[in-house]
Write a structure and sequence with these properties.
Distance between the termini: 11 Å
Order of helices and strands: EEHEEHHHHEHHH
Structural class: mainly alpha
CATH class of the largest domain: Mainly Alpha
Number of domains: 2
Subcellular location: Cell inner membrane
InterPro entries: PqiA-like (IPR007498), PqiA-PqiB_transport (IPR051800)
CATH architecture of the largest domain: Up-down Bundle
CATH topology of the largest domain: Butyryl-CoA Dehydrogenase, subunit A, domain 3
Helix content: 55-70%
Organism: Pseudomonas shirazensis
Protein name: Paraquat-inducible protein A
Strand order of the largest sheet: 4-3-5
Transmembrane segments: 55-74, 94-127, 148-167, 179-198
Radius of gyration: 23 Å
Largest sheet: 3 strands, antiparallel
Length: 218
């Protein structure tokens, strides 16, 4: 049975409550100054300039994503023969030598995950800016997914470090980082900042009555 907005309990905004971004405590915004009584962090009903900062961080990450994939990330020397490797050439080389598991990890973490984050964040930003009431629940779940995969963004960097350590054990082998790994590190940092800057509460702000009806249907 569908229920109207009046059948729902009051929202946090109506009760002048706000969650602390640092410790998660529900704080009364009627108290002055607006700071958390537990950790003394400043309180905001919404993340300040959320959309502008998210766009800025994501576009910066997209700019760095191009040289991160085109420039070499490491130079491997075996028996005096050295060669630079980009991310994709490293994936193909690992695959050709039978290390398909490492190749798959590097491909997913270095190419697929950043691409998914770019598409997901762009979808969230565009729909929020258009004040879309489409699939609010699913978009909230998409944002949580972006947050989740962000924790694994540095996985391939760890794999490269592991490979470097294994090569160093061989007396006739050596490995050195190249400038591409710096750009990829910047991609990871800026995509994480973009996800942290986005305020998922804006998804539900477009149409409160319609959003509440959608929650009631679930």
């Amino acid at each position: 049975m569908n229920r109207t907005a009046r059948d729902h309990p009051p929202t946090a905004a109506e009760l002048n409550l706000c969650l602390c971004h640092s410790c998660g405590l529900a704080c009364d915004m009627r108290d002055e100054p607006h700071s958390c009584p537990r950790c003394d962090a400043p309180l905001h009903r919404r993340k300040v300039n959320s959309l502008a900062r998210t766009w800025a961080f994501m576009l910066a990450a997209l700019v760095f994503y191009i040289p991160a994939n085109l420039l070499p990330v490491m130079n491997t020397t075996m028996l005096g023969d050295g060669a630079d490797s980009t991310i994709m050439s490293g994936v193909l080389e690992f695959w050709a030598h039978g290390a398909w598991d490492i190749a798959l990890i590097i491909f997913i973490a270095s190419i697929a995950v950043p691409g998914v984050k770019f598409v997901a964040l762009s979808l969230l930003l565009i729909t929020v800016q258009r004040r879309s009431q489409w699939a609010c629940r699913e978009r909230s779940q998409l944002y949580r997914f972006v947050e989740l995969i962000g924790y694994w963004s540095m996985l391939d960097v760890l794999v490269v470090a592991l490979v470097a350590a294994l090569v160093k054990f061989q007396a006739l082998g050596d490995i050195e980082p190249r400038v591409g790994i710096l750009f990829f590190g910047l991609v990871v940092v800026f995509t994480m900042l973009a996800a942290m800057s986005f305020d998922p509460r804006l998804i539900w702000q477009a149409g409160p009555e319609e959003a509440m009806d959608e929650v009631a249907r679930h």
